[in-house]
Amino acid sequence: MKKLLVLSLAIIMIFVSACNTNAPDSSVAPDSSAAPSSSAAPDSSVVPDSSAAPDSSTAPSSEASSEAAPAASIGEWTITVVTKDGENAFTSADAAKLTPISMEATTKNKKGEESTSAYIGAKLADILATVGVSDFTSLTIEASDGFAADYDKTLAMADDTILAWSKDGKAIKSDSPLQMAPKTGVGNQFVKSVAKIIVNA
After folding, report:
1. Which pLDDT tens digit goes with each residue over 85-130?
2. Spatial distance between the Cα atoms of 183 and 58, rounded to a whole number of angstroms
3. Of 35, 45, 157, 199, which residue has the fewest beta carbons closer than 10 angstroms?
4. Exposed, middle or buried: residue 75 (CB in 10 Å: 0-12, 13-18, 19+)?
5. Does an H or E element contain 125, and which?
6. Greater confidence, 144 or 31?
7. Under a CB-based contact definition with an 8 Å cutoff, are residues 104 and 119 in contact?
8. 113 with 66: CB under 8 angstroms?
9. Torsion angle, CA of 17/21/26/30, rounded to 10 degrees?
10. Burial of residue 200, with CB atoms counted within 10 A of its CB: 0-12 exposed, 13-18 middle, 19 or more buried
11. What is the distance of C-alpha 68 from the center of its chain?
12. Would you tell me how many other CB atoms lie within 10 Å of the CB of residue 150?
């Protein structure tokens, strides 16, 4: 019985010893050197290179070239077209419905000196068609002061014979803000202050 007790005690001591050997050693602290290095953190001292920003000098300029100024206004006016059947009024409102013509014409003064101007207006042929005139031999263009000049049918119906309201980019200023501009005409046929067109049968 005594031997059995001693044997049991020896087995218990061996078991306890074995358990202590397998238990983790709390004296072994984790190796702090295995912790992630703070040097791997993003370097806040590195800032984006400002030279990489878009070059403002390449942005579109706010100074856009301005468009050419529009021609002088057609204004408000009325002329009279006289036919064998009576008188017809042709107004600036009628002219505004026609296709404007722009052209240059050269004239000579009494000294023989030439000058070239740019005119904008309506074709005389279109004006005549608007008031229903087609059959005639000539026209008499009359100014507000009574001055008059004759146009044969060829000159009157030419594509470059116009009743102008603009000269060299400015509105014509006279008693009537209109001037005849027949490109193939002569000096006195550039009638100023046009007031009346007389149709000669």
Report:
1. 999 999 999 999 999 999 999 998 888 899 999 999 999 999 999 9
2. 49
3. 45
4. middle
5. helix 124-130
6. 144
7. yes
8. no
9. 180
10. middle
11. 10
12. 14
Q: Tens digits of per-residue pLDDT, 120-160?
A: 999 999 999 999 999 999 999 999 999 999 999 999 999 99
Closest Cα partner for 166 from 108, 121, 106, 109? 121
pTM above threshold 0.90:
no
Handedness of CA 109, 113, 117, 123 (dihedral sign): positive
Residue 91: strand pairing partners: 78
Residue 194: which of 71, 68, 92, 96 has the closest Cα?
92
Query: What residues contact 79, with CB distance under 8 A and at least 6 apart?
Result: 89, 90, 163, 176, 178, 194, 195, 196, 197
Q: What is the spatial distance between Cα 63 and Cα 61, in angstroms, rounded to a whole number?
A: 5
Question: Mean pLDDT for the chain?
Answer: 78
